[in-house]
Amino acid sequence: MIEAQVHQQLRALLREWGEPSWPHHLTLARLVARALRLGRSALLQVGSLSAYQGEYRLSYLIALMMWPGPAVIVAPDPTAQRILLVDLPRLQEKLHIHKPVQQGDRWPGHAFNGILVTTPKAWLGDRLGGHHAFPDGIPTLIDDADNLELWLRQQLSVQLSPLDWNHLALSYPAHQALIQDTHVALTHAAFQRPTNPYHRYPLDDSDSEQLARLHQVLTASRPGGEPQDEGPMPPQWANFWQRFNPPDHLLWFSVDRDRGHMDLHCAPVDLAATLATVWSRQPVVLIGAALDPDPAALNFRQRLGLGDLTCLQFTPHRQNDAIQLYVPTHLPLPNTPQFQSVLHQEIRHLLMVPWPEQLGPTVILLDDLPLKGQLAAALAGEFGSRVQVEQQTIGPNSILVSSWEFWRQHRGLLPPPALLIVATLPLPSLENPMVAGRVAFHKRRRQDWFRLYLFPTAITEIQRATAPSRLHQGAVALLDTRVHYRSYGIQILDALSPAACLRSLPREWGP
Question: Which tens digits make up the pLDDT trace of 91-115?
Answer without folding.
Answer: 888 888 889 999 999 999 888 999 9
